[in-house]
Fold this sequence. Notes:
The complex is a heterodimer.
Chain A (H helix, E strand, L loop, with lengths): L4 E3 L2 E4 L5 E6 L6 E7 L6 E7 L2 E5 L6 E5 L5 E5 L8 E8 L9 E2 L3 E5 L1
Parallel strand pairs in A: 2-11
Antiparallel strand pairs in A: 1-3, 3-8, 4-5, 4-9, 5-6, 7-8, 9-10, 9-11
Chain B lengths: L8 E5 L4 E6 L7 E8 L6 E6 L4 E2 L4 E4 L5 E6 L8 E9 L12 E6 L1
Parallel strand pairs in B: 1-9
Antiparallel strand pairs in B: 2-7, 3-4, 3-8, 5-6, 6-7, 8-9
Amino acid sequence: AAGVIQSPRHLIKEKRETATLKCYPIPRHDTVYWYQQGPGQDPQFLISFYEKMQSDKGSIPDRFSAQQFSDYHSELNMSSLELGDSALYFCASSLNGGTDYGYTFGSGTRLTVV
Amino acid sequence: DAKTTQPNSMESNEEEPVHLPCNHSTISGTDYIHWYRQLPSQGPEYVIHGLTSNVNNRMASLAIAEDRKSSTLILHRATLRDAAVYYCILRDRTGANNLFFGTGTRLTVIP
């Protein structure tokens, strides 16, 4: 079965650079979510999109932005990167808010800022 | 938001049952109890969810207390592959609120 695809798997950037993370949700899923997980931390909700419209916002820094495109893939754009942005970034998708079958998460993008 | 409380860590011997507890004394009538787990270096994975009645699926069973203030995730025969952090999360039945991860239980399976 198709899963949530994230790219790239690994990314190394320098401070003050920008990064773009991509997410391809499961076909026909209507909602995409982004999470950040720092070293030794639990996943923290950043932002979500329902049918290409932003639906909820969590602890996402102003330096980050995201959007969902007409083909339902989503991108997380991160600017002025800081060392503290080094983390695993997970994308998840769901149908009907995940009330029946939960969220399906991708394998994540590991971002290292040096 | 209603919160959950789980032990930080638990150990189990391989091929023995594991009971992972979760307290949620402030649960509301419209909250579902969801369980996710996260294996090392992987994204979280949905395990099971329920409202009032006990639930079973191919991965686990969920036992919910009659007053709904606590629940227990049951792995019938732990394998090494079950070593993960297990999260108990409350979500409104409409799914209107997002999935918020608290501090889960790190399960170690001993060969």
